[in-house]
């Protein structure tokens, strides 16, 4: 939970540390099936990095702010469990880059998303220019990057960055509903699907297909696939244990 409402939930070293620690804990807890990134109810989901901390010099042997962002954002992107972003309001600069690390984006109808780096003569460092063109049409990515403008979540849904738009008051109940649904799926199959889908972004089609087939052969040895097939045959709801 991003919880700096007076600072529009801007990112600090403490928040980045807390995020990395929480993700490590979540990975080790089999009872946690889905991770949700949300913010306190203020006009912003995340307005980017705290510029004071960005400009601070790192102590000898310490990661600078941007490398700390890379580490924590990478942990979020590579989390083996489904990660949902609940976008309640203004989302820009580092907030947009943070959102792009998530698997599913559910947004309030009051939310806006954009990249404002160019407004301040700042170059993105954790995905703005490198990842955004992979998630939306390249001309849309360039428009957002060059103009520094934000677009309503409804428009970003048309471009594929946002999965669902809901009424502002229904945001967290809809996210909870989605979490409940995903929690009933096989955590093992979701983990493997996410792994292959992520790898495929940097592979040829044939390499991605080969990786998928190898993963399927491994999955044939799991208890979850046996439970799923048995439940289908017996016309009952499957109960997955994740192995």
UniProtKB/TrEMBL annotation:
InterPro entries in the record: ClpP/crotonase-like_dom_sf, Enoyl-CoA_hydra/iso
The record's section on Pfam families has: ECH_1
Gene3D superfamilies recorded? 2-enoyl-CoA Hydratase, Chain A, domain 1 (3.90.226.10)
What family is reported? Belongs to the enoyl-CoA hydratase/isomerase family.
**PANTHER family in the record:** ENOYL-COA HYDRATASE, IP11341P-RELATED
Q: What is this protein called?
A: Enoyl-CoA hydratase/isomerase family protein
